[in-house]
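Weekly sync notes, structure subgroup
Attendees: PM, AL, DS (notes)

Item 1: joint prediction request from the bench team. They want all two components modeled as one assembly rather than separately. Inputs as received:
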Amino acid sequence: GENVEQHPSTLSVQEGDSAVIKCTYSDSASNYFPWYKQELGKGPQLIIDIRSNVGEKKDQRIAVTLNKTAKHFSLHITETQPEDSAVYFCADNAGGTSYGKLTFGQGTILTVHP
Amino acid sequence: ETGVTQTPRHLVMGMTNKKSLKCEQHLGHNAMYWYKQSAKKPLELMFVYNFKEQTENNSVPSRFSPECPNSSHLFLHLHTLQPEDSALYLCASSQEETGGYNEQFFGPGTRLTVL
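Output from the run, pasted for the record:
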């Protein structure tokens, strides 16, 4: 089945620094790659996503890049703030099935120190 | 608020108990999901309902029994669970569209502890 690998598992940065989280996927037919942020006591919330027809997407301080050839995609957070501290999950749509099945990475615990 | 609510938020049960988890979405979506989230593991998809029909069952043990009476409500019936079933159970919903692009909206989860 589809496999999504996420690194690193933990990431600690100083406020104002950038943070980068990387994921690799195995099914070349996957065409949708969302990123979710999960805060303590809450369910995951979508923060940004990218489709396979573009290589980069940006929304204020967050951006996602996609390399289809290498089958990896990355989340970039610039000018990090303490409220960015959370668990971040990448996912793909498991070969582009129409039933919306997502395969998630293992998660990255991001800590931003003031 | 994401538009997806789950009750109860916390549940402690013995291995011989029967309980149910409830999920309700107020977004008009046509697909709903159950996930299991355990410590140090990726989110595990358990069940998918699309237009009330179960379209995915990821080899989940029969002690977990889903029910989707309509497109807004989803239940997970629990019976004779094991301690290793203790986890956060997340419900999600989405509006299916062609192409497989699918933003899923998650509820806050039910923290289940099996004694």
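Discussion: Chain B touches chain A through 29 residues (CB under 8 Å).
Action: AL to compare against the crosslinking data before next sync.
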